[in-house]
Amino acid sequence: MITLDLSLPDTRYPIHIGRDLLDDANLILPHLPQRKVAIVTNTTVAPLYLARLQGALEAAGVAVLPIVLPDGEAYKTWDTLNLIFDALLSSRAERKTTLIALGGGVIGDMTGFAAACYQRGAPFIQVPTTLLAQVDSSVGGKTAINHPKGKNMIGAFYQPRAVIADMTLLDTLPQRELSAGLAEVIKYGLLGDADFLAWLEANMARLVARDHDALAHAVRRSCEMKADIVAQDEKESGVRALLNLGHTFGHAIEAGLGFGAWLHGEAVGAGMMLAAALSHELGWIDAAALARTERLIAAAGLPTRAPDLGVDAWLEHMSHDKKVESGRLRFVLLKALGQAAIVDDVAPEALQRVLAGPYIRRDTAY
Amino acid sequence: MITLDLSLPDTRYPIHIGRDLLDDANLILPHLPQRKVAIVTNTTVAPLYLARLQGALEAAGVAVLPIVLPDGEAYKTWDTLNLIFDALLSSRAERKTTLIALGGGVIGDMTGFAAACYQRGAPFIQVPTTLLAQVDSSVGGKTAINHPKGKNMIGAFYQPRAVIADMTLLDTLPQRELSAGLAEVIKYGLLGDADFLAWLEANMARLVARDHDALAHAVRRSCEMKADIVAQDEKESGVRALLNLGHTFGHAIEAGLGFGAWLHGEAVGAGMMLAAALSHELGWIDAAALARTERLIAAAGLPTRAPDLGVDAWLEHMSHDKKVESGRLRFVLLKALGQAAIVDDVAPEALQRVLAGPYIRRDTAY
Lengths: 366, 366
Ligand SMILES: NC(=O)c1ccc[n+]([C@@H]2O[C@H](COP(=O)([O-])OP(=O)(O)OC[C@H]3O[C@@H](n4cnc5c(N)ncnc54)[C@H](O)[C@@H]3O)[C@@H](O)[C@H]2O)c1
Ligand SMILES: NC(=O)c1ccc[n+]([C@@H]2O[C@H](COP(=O)([O-])OP(=O)(O)OC[C@H]3O[C@@H](n4cnc5c(N)ncnc54)[C@H](O)[C@@H]3O)[C@@H](O)[C@H]2O)c1
Ligand SMILES: [Zn+2]
Ligand SMILES: [Zn+2]
Fold this sequence. Notes:
The structure is a homodimer of 366-residue chains.
Chain A: E1 2-7, E2 12-18, E3 36-42, H1 45-59, E4 63-69, H2 78-90, E5 98-103, H3 105-117, E6 124-128, H4 131-137, E7 142-147, E8 150-157, E9 162-166, H5 175-192, H6 194-208, H7 212-232, H8 247-257, H9 264-281, H10 287-299, H11 311-319, E10 331-336, E11 339-343, H12 348-355
Bound molecules: nicotinamide-adenine-dinucleotide (2 copies) and zinc ion (ZN) (2 copies).
InterPro entries (chains A, B): Dehydroquinate_synthase, DHQ_synth_AroB, DHQ_synth_fam, DHQS/DOIS_N, DHQS_C
EC number (chains A, B): 4.2.3.4
Function (chains A, B): Catalyzes the conversion of 3-deoxy-D-arabino-heptulosonate 7-phosphate (DAHP) to dehydroquinate (DHQ).
């Protein structure tokens, strides 16, 4: 196991990365102000891992309230959140009861937001069970639920007391979900670390085959980079926007196809291709760099071609993005492989050329 | 106008207190990151004051989205909060749109919580229109909505960027609501300032008659004391509990009679009497001090006798209080008039004697 330390102005917390951490109650105990927790999970993850975590905690004398929610992004809503509040209030959970999220990003986002709001703030621990949650959503303190009019529109910045990323939990993850998580891993390489990018090119086959050591290294480097950026900009006013590489295009794909048609990570994969293509269009990266990007995204099992939404739909969906400032489109683009920058004055013609270019599929209907 | 400065570890903001402040857009403009605001108010306050605030802002070039909610504590719910989110999202309000609460504590608590959650945090300004909101709920950053299983159970600590307390708005406040606000004013005198308590004894008639100067002084001193306590303990882990003087008993009255039968401030009035009686029972304040307390509460137009809930119901409702730590009853009691302390080892017999004593009405059915 290795432990990273995320330091923020008001708080700091450990990110533990390793194997078989689920059974180790000692990673959790130091963070409990009271020997009472609620484990929030879903109907898919509960049969796989709830008993182990609950058993380890109970053996250490901790009272456990399990809260099992329905599975799916469609349930990342106020109504589901309310199931958490109902369970907590029915069991008279006090403000010091710790909420433990055991699941992917959906469970992590909802549990974190529930913890942020329950009696104005209960302690919270993340046990991410998807690769995406381990490298992205569990680190950094963004929590949210969806609103019918927009994804992640209602939420809070609220930091966990600890993150426990157990590589062995990824053994049961569907392959598509693993690839989706790899999209975010590739993102870190592209946006800020050329060496890590090269390591990913050399090791993508091991990652896709779920080699625990390779995964642990990828999670570690991803978390380090995210922690570093979050520490500089907890409330997302500046540099944190770099983490949105591929996401402005990606969100448009998700919205354009209807959320759920593609996984988020798949949309980010194709979105990063478009961001790279736009960077190439602006003369920042060359054709070889573009080809390297494409090979890596493909090796992760991700799409490298976005669906053909039509230029109007692209612009419409991109302008709905939460990152829009005073109506202006902002992109995260690549100055080089391993070096991203925030750009809000992209020439409309350059964008149009990319949206009419080879990284948009024209052969398939959606 | 006088301006207090509330300094917290992460933020500071002004509390403006005076007359005819509603028409002065200059108190608001410096706090707007974008010339766009949503004014959240209710069906009672909107006809009285919305046009004035909206007009002043529009004249200064600010785009205004008015959001008028139904009036009443019964609407302090997620469903009503969602009306705010719906309106913001329908008008494509960005994360920098400022939410202005124009109303009493219900509007302030809901608007603050909506601002805390909207896109994980939008700017927020308080324009409190009840005395209670001016001296209590608008200052300190507690926001919340109710849950069917408990009041204020879901919320956030979230600070406004400014508080604007205009005494002239109190002219239209129902007398019962004015008295309810005075309960919290008396609370500040009792818990920490014997001089202010003496000033209140001398000036209660002017306050009840809504003399603007007297009100401004009372609001100022109350806000100073609250700001002071909040600055020491923003997240309510210690000294902030002093602000709950009268509230453990008061909440039991509200819960026991059914919320809404008595106003919160009325319950706090009778609750402070019981806290004073318990302090007397423990030998901390003498009979003369108890009598002074009673005269002041009565002069504010507040009940000095609590309803007879029965000992079991008292204990049951008090143990539901959010301030309970690990199942233990905590009281805020008076070491002297003007000096409160937190006590969690009150002898059950002393409590029983108070609950069987003269400050409980036995003559009326509820
Ligand atoms: N907070 C943030 O900073 C942040 C960042 C990125 C994404 N997100 C959010 O994260 C969510 C996506 O997260 P996700 O990709 O983890 O999706 P997810 O939580 O829906 O998990 C994907 C699927 O895998 C299942 N699953 C989880 N762990 C498993 C395991 N170990 N074995 C077998 N199945 C398992 C889940 O039940 C689900 O069916 C979105 O809601 C997104 O908005 C948040
Ligand atoms: N956040 C905190 O720290 C805190 C502290 C104390 C109380 N509270 C909350 O505050 C709420 C109570 O606040 P409140 O006492 O202001 O009640 P309220 O907001 O319900 O207002 C009382 C009534 O007066 C009306 N009103 C408001 N201003 C008026 C005006 N100028 N003229 C005429 N009518 C007016 C309102 O529409 C309402 O009908 C409760 O929900 C309580 O939980 C919060
Ligand atoms: Zn992402
Ligand atoms: Zn009160």
